[in-house]
Amino acid sequence: MALRPLALGLAACCTLNLAATRLAPAPKAAAAGVRLNADSAVEDAALLSLGMRRMAADLGLVRLLIYYGTPEEAGVVSEEPGSHPYLDPMHPELAWGGGHYPELASRAERVLDIDPSFTYVAIYAAGALAFNLNRPDQALDVLRYAAARNPGDVELAQYMAAVGFSRTGDKRRVLRLLEPMLSRPDCPTMIKNMVAYLYLSRGDRARAAALYREIAESSRDPGYRGIARMMLRRLEAPAASGR
Amino acid sequence: MRNVWILARNSWQENVRGKFFALTVVFAVLVLYISVLLGALAADQEVRVLYDFGLSFIELMGLAGALYGATTVILREMEAKTIYLILTRPVSRGEFLFGRFLGLAMSAAASMATMAAFHLLLLFLKGWRWDSLYALALLGAYLKVLITAALAVALALFSSSVLTALSITLILWTLGHFLPELRYMIAWGPAQWQMAPLRALSFVIPDLQLLNYRDQLAAASAQRPPTWLAFSYAPLYAGIWLLIARSLLRKKEF
Hints:
The complex is a heterodimer.
Chain A: H1 3-23, H2 41-49, H3 53-69, H4 104-114, H5 119-132, H6 136-149, H7 154-168, H8 171-178, H9 189-201, H10 205-218, H11 222-236, H12 238-241
Helix pairs in contact in A: 2-3, 3-4, 4-5, 4-6, 5-6, 5-7, 6-7, 7-8, 8-9, 9-10, 10-11
Chain B: H1 2-17, H2 19-41, H3 46-79, H4 82-87, H5 93-125, H6 132-159, H7 162-177, H8 179-188, H9 192-204, H10 227-250
Helix pairs in contact in B: 1-5, 2-3, 2-5, 3-5, 3-6, 3-7, 5-6, 5-10, 6-7, 6-10, 8-9
């Protein structure tokens, strides 16, 4: 007795869904699908099934930041809470002194699989790989991965060029390509720190100080805030003016 | 219509005095706690993470409250026999159902709006600037909750079991978010006859991805489904399930 209205209702649902599919065809799913990390596969799958793709990507980013912020060697301790333990603020382009972080690129790519438009992850991971870990080829791979999912993203292209020039040691061109990224609202503090260092290395102390001041006042990363404050103290010290 | 409104107001008052606003307080405390944690964990992306977590929790809390209300609203009155008091008056079963559902929808709206106000306050405190896409995402979440509540009312009446209705509704909620992937599987999967049951299912389950603006915020507007389509799909789909529920209630023997 209850089956007739149910059957009619289901037929109406079919008609409605068919009409919706015709009017707004779903974007074709990526043939590669979504790669889930073994550590968080259940959690990611649960969030995706609840329609919370962005939240799954956010958690992926938090995991990536924790991974990159944790010393690989026992006994390496960061001076500033939250800062990267290997960071040498005076030479951020050369070496952080240690650390390999072999999963950095793959973790960033997995976040991009979940939310392809989350280009911040690509820029952050590529920055770390190219300028801190001295692996520009891997950085370019991450950026290409993001660019393939965001065709037409000019900033990604610029960033790829900057990483490319960093390999040849052309700091002037790297700076010219990175500068426009500073206006991006979600420009990673790591990039700002790198640009400030590049200003400093070419003698532009005023711009470097302005950028360090911005980092010290507005960055949400306590590690980089500490570095910026230290650099400002050095720049403003009387002895520094003679250098 | 007057009967529907009286029943809706009554249902709304009951809900607001009870579980709905208790859930809101729980949510508020949770978000505060999470926002403090995320400040340290997400660094540059703190606002995005707070934004996404907040919207997701608002949807989940709204869903939890609406599902509980939808599966128990009629069955509880049938068990307590209070439904007789209403139906002996000049109130049709359809009016009773629509009145109760309207009250539930109003309660869900009030609950989600309160949570959103608190969430917005936190976002503004963290330096976020207003973006109209937030309203679109919130409205999409509310419509998803309404669709699911309508489904739950019909399933509760069909199965006469709160647990069964809850379980099936949650499965449909999950499948509704996987619909694009299901369609992809159907198109590219093995032999078509093997896919026939899945194809039939894909035409019945609600297309919740159509309303999932929260996950489509960063996509270019051309890639998002047209707003008019999403916002007309939701009331139509919910309406179909409410009509099914009305037919089931009319034939129900107490």
